[in-house]
Amino acid sequence: MTLQTSTTTVNIAGSYERDGFFLPYDVLSHGEAAELRADFEAAEQELAGRPEDLAILRSSPDRVLPSFDKLVRHPRLIEGVSEILGPDLLVWNGGTFIKEANSTHIVSWHQDLTYWGLSDAEEVTAWVALSPSTPASGCMKFIAGSHKHSVVEHVDTFDANNLLSRGQEIAVDVDEDDATDVLLSPGQASLHHGHLFHASGPNTTGERRIGVAIRYIKPSLKQKDGQKTLARLASGTDNFGHFRLADAPNGRLSEVDLARCRDDAKLRREVLFKGVEDQKGQRY
Question: In this structure, what DSSP letter does residue 118 have?
């Protein structure tokens, strides 16, 4: 099933409450999306011989590239997410999901909040396309209404072909015929709930598929284990202090920012791999 909507005809909050997602949501022009992608891919080339820092770039580009810091605070994203969460917003993370050309990599059916260790579900993921998101390129698929479940049981597979940190997948049957394809042009976004069942298939095209998953949370949330991971104030105020607030990047690929992210990545691994003796995941 495919879905096309418009913010002029559909109320974001109402659609989100009913389905657990809203799409497509226009954020950037095609030209702006192309510029953002070019900056990111140039940074990949600059860090090609530094695997740890390359991983940081891909998992936290907003912390090391001013262009991506600007993206996570983009007025259009703040406007849309604020309709759901309110005006006070933190960016918990803003990582990329990349499927190389003709890649077999997939993302299994899962719920985002399974292993994030957050105290509540008041989170919205804005997935911004920097390349065409189509069934052929391995676009996301959503199960409408599945966000009304709490977190269901997941199984860790640590499958090398799975882009998720633990290769996690939900341990319940999903009817693929009920899925909505997340069709996005470069610069468009989808907004989805952290309990929503979603997945994506392989990229069968000759081009990279690149998306930025920006996780917005209310400042009232916290890490259940008491860790203070980095978060960026995107809008409003933080009256709680549950996270260490990240400043704007000091520059492009600043060593200060990369070092700060290395330390934060260690904390995030503790959160994401809690209860796992052999931390095989490669995302952090």
Answer: B
223 touches 229 (CB < 8 A) = yes
HSE (side-chain half, CA atoms, 13 Å) at 208 = 13
Q: What residues have CB less than 8 Å from 259, skipping those under 6 apart?
A: none
Model confidence, pTM: 0.90
Q: Domain range holding 92?
A: 12-272
Determine the length of the chain: 284
Reported as a single tens digit per residue, the pLDDT across 36-75 is 999 999 999 999 999 999 999 999 999 999 999 999 999 9
Whether 4 is covered by a domain: the verdict is no
Domain contains 2:
no
Distance CA 278, CA 18 (A): 39
Query: Quick check: 8 pLDDT over 60?
Result: no
Peptide bond before 202: cis, by omega within 30 degrees of 0? no
Instruction: Domain count for the chain, please give it.
Output: 1
Residue 5 near residue 23 (C-beta atoms within 8 A): yes
| DSSP label at residue 162 | B
Residue 283 domain-assigned (yes or no): no
Alpha carbon 122 to its chain centroid, in Å, reads 15
Which CATH number covers residue 209? Answer: 2.60.120.620
Q: How many CB atoms lie within 10 A of CB 172?
A: 12
Residue 5 lies in a domain: no
Report d(CA 261, CA 5) in Å as an integer: 37
